[in-house]
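Hello again,

I reread your note about wanting to compare the complex against the isolated chains. To keep things tidy I'm splitting this into two emails, and this first one only covers the full assembly. Below are the input lines as submitted, including protein chains and any nucleic acid or small-molecule components. They are followed by the predicted structure of everything together. The single-chain runs will come separately.
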Amino acid sequence: MNARERQSAPAAQFGQRAAAAVADAHLRKSFRGAMDFLIARRAAQFPDAGALERQRALAEQIRQYSLARLPDLLEQLERKLTENGIRVHWAEDAGEANAIIVGIARRHAAKRVVKGKSMVSEEVGLNHALEAAGIEALESDMGEYIVQLDGEKPSHIIMPAIHKTKEQIARLFAEKVPGARYTESVDELIGIGRAVLREKFMRAEIGLSGVNFAVAETGTLCLVENEGNGRMCTTVPEVHIAITGIEKVVEKLEHVPPLFGLLTRSATGQATTTYLNLISGPRKPGEKDGRNAELDGPKEVHLVLVDNGRTQAYADRQLRATLQCIRCGACMNHCPVYTRIGGHAYGTTYPGPIGEIVSPHLIGLAATHALPTASTLCGACGEVCPVKIPIPDLLIRLRGEAQHDARPGHAPLVGQGAARSALMDFVWAGWAALYTRPALYRAFAWLATRFRALTPPVQPGWTASRTPLKPAARTLREQLLERGERN
Amino acid sequence: MSCDTNRHYPEKPPAVYLFGTCLIDLFCPEAGMDTVRLLEREGIAVHFPAGQTCCGQPAYTSGFPDQARAVARSQLGLFPGPWPVVVPSGSCAGMMRHHYPKLFAGDPAQLAAAEALAERVFELSEFLLHVAKIQLQDSGRPATVALHTSCSARREMGTHRHARALLDQLPDVKLVTQEHEPECCGFGGTFSLKHPAISSAMAGDKIGALKESGAEAFVSADCGCMLNLNHTLQKRGDPFRGRHLATFLWQRTASVDEIDEIGKKTGEAP
Ligand code: SF4
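Full-complex prediction:
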């Protein structure tokens, strides 16, 4: 499987893709280096463990409070945004989200949409939908631009092109950017990219962005970014469309700073980003004139609020924690599995631990049941998550849901029981029968130790890279009995 | 996942229960025996309830909570006395201490028992350090070792701190730190069987880091990690090995008489 095949195959082929990725020494080295860098940057931002714990506890509370009041807050948000002149659209799934955006573009006879970074637009496959409608989607975030230029998908939610080396980008630009010459100077490469990107803002009729936090009380859309392209996308074109998941709402403006502070430091190890855009509506009459160019902005602002499976997570008390996520990416940066296989191997929009817990809701367990198993449950993700999502617990839960019918009193998840296997049911039933009957277990252990020479030389999964596990000559309990130990 | 940084420790007891764990019972009994030896030398009697089998973790983490609960329930009643339950494995200790209460959350009768048991569960290094207040007398030759603790031992039980403090009591043991020290070794229970390619890449990286640290061996408080790494090393024909913390501590601090008394060893490391 080459790199391209690896990222286009569906999530269901996770095992194959992961094995191919692991075998790619170059990929492993570059992800390891990049993740080490991000881990160190984050650590430098949190010198005081106690302070970090207090901030995480506060952030968790804010997110839990917001989710507890989600229906009310969404109503309030819609009301406020409408008052501010922002049009609100609700999309139940990816198809609806795309139809809404294509519809807006058609009304404006738009030919080009310039996009700031938005993972939700990736999630719904917006670029595809736009292209199908004859509308060009121009990525303006440097990383997104690079992966788009190469026909790829992002491999990280914060740094979409993190899998690419400087040399690969140099070759890509020389090949695909008209007039660009081959250079490995990072500054020159950024210069080439910028020149192309700047052009795009001038040509696009519509700007599209994501949203990091939507404030219900004030009707404000907060957008966190570093490159200034987000500001350009949301101010230069005549129409701005923001797209985000329904979980991104918070009640008050004062809820934003604690989350923002943890987001930037957890994500890229920055105390703050270069830009924090607070968008509160389209330009008002009289705002765009020659003297007051600063106060310009789009004539029309839309917000598309996407469900796309989020209410399924919301409906379950435990799984609801999934929606606390602020998409910082720290869980993937610290994940030893993500570090080994990179983002494309997951085959989903969101890779790494957050992808493993959110993808089953977005596209169902049938396609994603392997993802929650792609973890040693080491807990590194849960330890760094700024909003304290108990990721390992959720992984365990999803492993169960993938292999069983819904528990009484619980609605089935999409793809519930998709990984059910009669063999596994049998294995674990047998395991439980053995380990709940001490006498049976003792007999088993006695036989296993006496016939240890007959230990199978091939133990599936284990002996590929290890020698077989072989019982000891005598169990601990036998040795203790021999010593005269009695209970 | 909550690590007990502020755990309150009881006085040193006259006796403890040993929960031997299924892996130690069948694959690393020496680690269990050396645990008993260390505890007895501190004047603590060790009771080994014969009905014990497994903490239930394999089924729990594999998504078979009913089977895990059945096995866990069969363990709940095995420790009726007031004594601490010492577990020479961080991940099994973490299961009993932090996950039993979750496992029995829907069953009030069992929940009380699970919570009472969780309160009395101690990982071995934590127990030796904070409850037995052991003072080790090093009698081994100078050695350089690295410590690898399992991830659940680290994050749920703080084992890396306790084990380190114990090793620091040995003046002739130089403890070196490997690159990416907190990172997982790739075992992850059934993960190692389900995703062998990823698992073996992680084990390979861990082995590389341990060897580059300059250590002549590594010490671990978990048999799972130890089996994963040692069997990988053996497959590669590499003589580098890890030993269980209990075995390492015992061998370094046992007098010649004590070692003679033990006589023939029955356990074999790969
Ligand atoms: S799950 Fe936590 S660590 Fe991962 S992206 Fe979301 S907020 Fe960040």
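For quick reference: Chain B touches chain A through 73 residues (CB under 8 Å).

B.
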